[in-house]
């Protein structure tokens, strides 16, 4: 009932020619995939050329962040309607790197989600605990407040559009993946909390796992009941790796 979503977060990688070359290669490789939604999130500068290149294909494009105001004196920021204008239909919000290095909080995450939704963008909202929080046994408390405070005050209709990504911070870019059981436990918890907030909407909500997902571990993760896809950094940068991720079930 929940269609899987395989998302690539390119982070601060690839020039425009590099980004365009990769999607040119990838779109042919995955042209026959219908049972998985595919999303790539390049840097801002590459959004427009990449979105042009994938027009008519099964690849969706998203930004890695946005600002909540529509326009004005906000040097360096990019507004939601500018992101749709560049050809995006998704946007990543609250990635742990943004929380860690750029001062994002559950409050800014919430503003960004609302701005994204009102511009017709689908937000991919990231939550996840640090290593210290896991060791201190506060994982569920942290995740619960990220979900309750970050994704609050939406209509049911809006809440149904949100994609959530569980990314344990200790597993991002470290080569350490949460075991499928560890991930499933948190995914089921997120669905329960989201269900307390928005009722039956939660059953249809896609919850992605992120943190060192690669071709060798994707199918074990995807077998878990509450894991509906991946948010992939490192392994999304090469066409053949990302192809293998998109075709995890084959
Ligand atoms: P990784 O990054 O796959 O390189 O661990 C995932 C992410 O941060 O979205």
Q: Give the overall average pLDDT.
A: 97
- Spatial separation of the terminal alpha carbons: 19 Å
Count of extended strands: 8
Secondary structure category = alpha/beta
Percentage beta strand: 5-15%
Report the total helices: 12
Roughly what percent helix? 40-55%
Radius of gyration (Å): 17 Å
Low-confidence stretches: none
User: What composes the largest sheet?
Assistant: 8 strands, parallel, barrel
Categorize the overall geometry: globular
- The largest sheet has its strands arranged as 1-2-3-4-5-6-7-8
Give the SSE string. Answer: EHEHEHEHHEHHHEHHEHEH
Listed once per kind, the bound small molecules are: 2-phosphoglycolic acid
What would you note in describing this structure?
The structure is a single chain. The protein is built from twelve helices and eight strands. The chain is of the alpha/beta class and 250 residues long. Strands 1-2-3-4-5-6-7-8 form an eight-stranded parallel barrel, surrounded by five helices. Strand 3 (59-63), helix 3 (80-85) and strand 4 form a beta-alpha-beta unit. The longest helix has 19 residues, at 180-198. It is globular. Residues 9, 167, 172-173, 210-213, 231-235 line the site of 2-phosphoglycolic acid. 2-phosphoglycolic acid binds at residues 9, 167, 172-173, 210-213, 231-235.
